[in-house]
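thread: overnight batch results

M.L. [08:02]
morning all. the overnight job finished for the chain we discussed friday. pasting input first so we're all looking at the same thing
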Amino acid sequence: MEKVTRSDAEWRQSLTPEEYRVLRQAGTEAPFTGEYTDTKTEGVYRCRACGAELFRSDAKFESHCGWPSFYQPSESDAVVLIRDTSLGMERVEVRCARCDSHLGHVFTGEGYEVPTDQRWCINSVSLTLEPAE
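M.L. [08:03]
and the structure it wrote out:
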Protein backbone atom coordinates (compact mmCIF):
# COMPACT_ATOMS: atom_id res chain seq x y z
CA MET A 1 0.00 0.00 0.00
CA GLU A 2 1.38 3.37 -1.00
CA LYS A 3 1.41 5.80 1.93
CA VAL A 4 -0.16 9.24 1.58
CA THR A 5 1.87 12.03 3.15
CA ARG A 6 0.83 15.68 3.06
CA SER A 7 1.86 18.78 4.93
CA ASP A 8 -0.47 20.27 7.51
CA ALA A 9 -1.26 23.09 5.08
CA GLU A 10 -2.19 20.57 2.36
CA TRP A 11 -4.50 18.68 4.74
CA ARG A 12 -6.17 21.95 5.79
CA GLN A 13 -6.71 22.86 2.14
CA SER A 14 -8.18 19.48 1.14
CA LEU A 15 -10.46 18.94 4.16
CA THR A 16 -13.32 20.94 5.68
CA PRO A 17 -12.66 22.34 9.18
CA GLU A 18 -14.72 19.52 10.76
CA GLU A 19 -13.00 16.82 8.67
CA TYR A 20 -9.62 18.28 9.64
CA ARG A 21 -10.55 18.40 13.34
CA VAL A 22 -11.56 14.72 13.39
CA LEU A 23 -9.19 13.17 10.85
CA ARG A 24 -6.00 15.11 11.62
CA GLN A 25 -6.53 16.19 15.24
CA ALA A 26 -8.24 13.02 16.55
CA GLY A 27 -11.50 14.79 17.31
CA THR A 28 -14.92 13.15 17.62
CA GLU A 29 -18.17 14.19 15.98
CA ALA A 30 -21.20 14.54 18.22
CA PRO A 31 -23.15 11.28 18.67
CA PHE A 32 -26.20 10.67 16.46
CA THR A 33 -25.23 13.50 14.09
CA GLY A 34 -23.11 11.65 11.53
CA GLU A 35 -24.15 11.04 7.94
CA TYR A 36 -23.68 7.25 8.15
CA THR A 37 -24.93 6.43 11.65
CA ASP A 38 -28.16 4.84 10.42
CA THR A 39 -27.28 4.24 6.75
CA LYS A 40 -28.18 0.83 5.37
CA THR A 41 -26.84 1.44 1.85
CA GLU A 42 -24.68 -1.42 0.58
CA GLY A 43 -21.18 -0.50 -0.49
CA VAL A 44 -17.63 0.28 0.54
CA TYR A 45 -16.64 2.82 3.18
CA ARG A 46 -13.45 4.69 2.29
CA CYS A 47 -11.18 7.06 4.19
CA ARG A 48 -12.40 10.59 3.51
CA ALA A 49 -8.84 11.90 3.57
CA CYS A 50 -7.15 9.48 1.13
CA GLY A 51 -9.80 7.19 -0.39
CA ALA A 52 -8.41 3.91 1.02
CA GLU A 53 -10.98 1.13 1.47
CA LEU A 54 -11.61 0.64 5.19
CA PHE A 55 -14.94 -1.10 5.81
CA ARG A 56 -17.75 -2.82 3.91
CA SER A 57 -21.44 -2.46 4.56
CA ASP A 58 -21.85 -6.19 5.23
CA ALA A 59 -19.79 -5.71 8.44
CA LYS A 60 -21.88 -2.71 9.62
CA PHE A 61 -24.34 -3.27 12.46
CA GLU A 62 -26.65 -1.26 14.69
CA SER A 63 -25.00 -0.71 18.05
CA HIS A 64 -27.15 2.32 18.97
CA CYS A 65 -24.02 4.10 20.25
CA GLY A 66 -24.39 7.20 18.06
CA TRP A 67 -21.70 6.44 15.48
CA PRO A 68 -21.45 3.97 12.60
CA SER A 69 -20.35 0.59 13.95
CA PHE A 70 -18.61 -2.24 12.15
CA TYR A 71 -17.45 -5.61 13.46
CA GLN A 72 -14.27 -5.68 11.35
CA PRO A 73 -12.34 -3.69 8.75
CA SER A 74 -12.41 -4.89 5.14
CA GLU A 75 -8.74 -5.93 5.41
CA SER A 76 -6.64 -6.24 8.56
CA ASP A 77 -3.91 -4.05 7.06
CA ALA A 78 -6.34 -1.24 6.16
CA VAL A 79 -6.11 0.19 9.66
CA VAL A 80 -3.54 0.75 12.40
CA LEU A 81 -4.43 0.36 16.08
CA ILE A 82 -2.88 2.64 18.69
CA ARG A 83 -3.17 2.62 22.48
CA ASP A 84 -5.08 5.75 23.55
CA THR A 85 -4.96 6.86 27.18
CA SER A 86 -6.59 10.25 26.68
CA LEU A 87 -9.68 11.22 28.66
CA GLY A 88 -8.44 9.25 31.68
CA MET A 89 -9.25 5.82 30.23
CA GLU A 90 -7.58 3.21 28.07
CA ARG A 91 -9.00 2.74 24.57
CA VAL A 92 -7.74 1.55 21.20
CA GLU A 93 -7.64 4.25 18.53
CA VAL A 94 -8.23 3.30 14.89
CA ARG A 95 -6.27 5.11 12.17
CA CYS A 96 -6.12 4.73 8.41
CA ALA A 97 -3.00 2.74 7.54
CA ARG A 98 -2.53 4.67 4.30
CA CYS A 99 -2.64 8.29 5.55
CA ASP A 100 -2.59 7.99 9.37
CA SER A 101 -5.93 9.79 9.77
CA HIS A 102 -7.96 9.27 12.93
CA LEU A 103 -11.12 7.22 12.31
CA GLY A 104 -12.46 6.34 15.76
CA HIS A 105 -11.96 3.56 18.32
CA VAL A 106 -12.44 -0.20 18.55
CA PHE A 107 -13.98 -1.88 21.59
CA THR A 108 -13.95 -5.59 22.43
CA GLY A 109 -16.08 -7.75 24.68
CA GLU A 110 -19.21 -5.64 24.87
CA GLY A 111 -21.50 -8.56 24.11
CA TYR A 112 -22.79 -7.57 20.68
CA GLU A 113 -23.86 -10.58 18.67
CA VAL A 114 -21.35 -10.13 15.87
CA PRO A 115 -18.72 -12.61 14.65
CA THR A 116 -15.73 -10.79 16.19
CA ASP A 117 -17.23 -9.46 19.47
CA GLN A 118 -15.79 -6.10 18.42
CA ARG A 119 -17.38 -2.69 17.82
CA TRP A 120 -15.39 -0.48 15.48
CA CYS A 121 -16.92 2.89 16.42
CA ILE A 122 -16.05 5.17 13.50
CA ASN A 123 -16.81 8.86 12.90
CA SER A 124 -19.00 9.40 9.82
CA VAL A 125 -16.94 12.45 8.90
CA SER A 126 -13.91 10.13 8.54
CA LEU A 127 -15.67 8.12 5.84
CA THR A 128 -17.17 8.32 2.38
CA LEU A 129 -19.57 5.64 1.19
CA GLU A 130 -19.16 4.26 -2.30
CA PRO A 131 -22.54 2.59 -3.00
CA ALA A 132 -22.56 -0.84 -4.63
CA GLU A 133 -23.80 -0.84 -8.20
